[in-house]
Amino acid sequence: MKDILEVIEKIRIANSKEELTAIIDEVASIIGLEYYLLGYTSAESMTSPSTTIIDNYPPKWRETYEKEKLAQHDPTVDYCLNQNAPIIWEQLNCAPLKRDQKNVMCRANDYGLKTGFSIPLHGVHSEFGMFSFGSSEQEKSPSFEAIQKAQIIAPALMDKFKDFDERVGINLTKREKECLLWVSEGKSSWEISIIIGCSERTVVFHLGNATNKLVCTNRYQAVSKAIIIGLIRPMI
User: Fold this and answer.
1) What span, in angstroms and rounded, lies between the C-alpha atoms of 206 and 203?
2) Are residues 41 and 131 in the same domain?
């Protein structure tokens, strides 16, 4: 466990993606599998998310994967989007996969990714990621200890990716957040003015400011973006 705690501390003080890559190389040695992939998606836009990948997967496989947009059919991606527990790739092969999904798994095997596992990563601001390790040796099935170690390290990597995120800070006032929150509940400007105790004109003013700050075209897009990046949350 000491080696894992030392790795987490290195991740915490890392200042660049290059340093993080070297640390993940070290993690792969600890895990005992030759290949790794860490992917992170920051979803400021639902249609144009920003994705960063650190990996040492076989280059020809990565090239094919990107060129043919295989992420759309990759069962590991689909699993990690919808689940939280780790998944061993062999378990996916035993699942009722679609033809395109089976094809992705077979082709990955052909390129040298024969066994491995993936850990889903989910952030509080709709960030998504996955942390995978693989081997070119068919008989080298991931051990419980390897998966456990990767699971312990994964949250620290997610936090560090958020630190590296180049998202420009957006500061909304308390009133702007309050108005957006009530828009998300389907309230009109007049209804919001009654709820928060101000004039309708003031509500329109606050919503206009929030929409401009979020670089949106209307209040509804502003609400969506504010929720995605964590500026408004359910009342507790």
Assistant:
1) 5
2) yes
Statement to judge: residues 200 and 157 lie in one domain: no
Three-state SS at 97: coil
12/20 Cα distance (integer angstroms): 10
Of 130, 164, 198, which closes a domain?
164
Taking the CA atoms of residue 3, residue 80, residue 106 and residue 104 in that order, the dihedral angle to the nearest 10 degrees is: -130
Q: In which element (H, E) is residue 195 found?
A: helix 189-196
pLDDT in tens, 58-94: 999 999 999 999 999 999 999 999 999 999 999 998 8
Helix, strand, coil distribution of the chain in percent, nearest 5: 55, 15, 35
pTM for this model (two decimals): 0.82
9 and 46 fall within a common domain = yes
- DSSP, collapsed to helix, strand or coil, labels residue 130 as strand
For residue 41 the two structure tokens come to: 């998606």
pLDDT tens-digit map of 9-25: 999 999 988 999 999 99
